Amino acid sequence: MQNSSIIEELSTQLESPNSRDRLIALASLRQFSPTEAVPLIKKVLYDSHMPVRSMAIFALGVKHTEESYPILVKLLQTDPDYGIRADAAGALGYLGDSRAFEPLVRAFYEDTEWLVRFSAAVSLGNLQDPRAKDVLLKALNCKEIVLQQAAISALGEIKAIESVDELLRFAQSEDWLLRQRLAEALGNLPCEKSISALKFLVRDSNAQVAEAASISLHKLLDTSH
C-alpha cells in the first residue's frame, strides 16, 4: 500500500470516536516523515482525551517541522492544563532549537506548577545551551527534590564545569536519587573535584549511586589520560 493511502487511512482513524483508535493512529505516524506526520498530529492537538493530546504534543517534538516550534510555545504559554504545559515544555527540548531557550526559562520562573518547571529544567539540559547555567543553579535551591534532580542532570548536560562546587553539596544528600543524579552529572564535568567526589560516591551505601559513580569515574579517568 502506498504512503498516501496509508496516510489517508490514518487521517480517518484519527477522527474515530474511539480514543484507542486515535492513539494507535498517532503511534503509526512514527514511520512517516515529519512533513507527512505533522498535519495529522495537528488534528488531535486539542483532543478531548488527555492521553491523545499528550501523545500528539510529544509527537510534535519528535517529528518536527517549522510549524512545531510556534505551536509548542503557544501551548506552553497559554494552555490552562498544567499537564499539557509540561508536555509542551518537554517536547521543546527535543527540537534542538535554540529559540526554545527563552520560553523555557520563562516557564521555569513564572509557571506555578512544579511539573511544568521540572519539564522546563529537563529541556534546558536537552538543548545543551550554556546560557541555562544561571537558571539551573537557582533550581538547585528549589524545595521540590525533583526540580533539584532535574537541575543537577541538566548542569551535567550543558557541561557547566564551573558549577561543580555548587553541585558537590549534594554528595551527602539524604535522597539517593539526588546522589545518583550527581554521580551521573559529574561524569560530564571533568576536573579534579569531580574525580575526588566520584571516588567518595563509589563507596555509597546505595548500589545504584555507587554504580553511577563508578561509570562516571571510569569515563573521567579514561579521558584524562
Describe the overall structure:
- This protein has 225 residues and is mostly helical.
- The protein has a domain of 64 residues: Leucine-rich Repeat Variant (Alpha Horseshoe).
- 69% of the residues lie in helices and 0% in strands.
- The protein contains 14 helices and no strands.
- The radius of gyration is 20 Å and the shape is elongated.
- It starts with a helix and ends with a helix.
- The mean pLDDT is 95.
Walk me through the topology.
Blueprint: H1 3-13, H2 19-28, H3 34-43, H4 50-62, H5 68-78, H6 82-95, H7 101-110, H8 114-127, H9 133-139, H10 145-157, H11 164-167, H12 176-186, H13 192-201, H14 207-224
Helix pairs in contact: 2-4, 3-4, 4-6, 5-6, 6-8, 7-8, 8-10, 9-10, 10-12, 12-14, 13-14
Provide a compact summary of the structure.
It contains 14 helices and no strands. It has 225 residues and is mostly helical. It is elongated.
Question: What are the defining features of this structure?
Answer:
Leucine-rich Repeat Variant, 14 helices, 225 residues
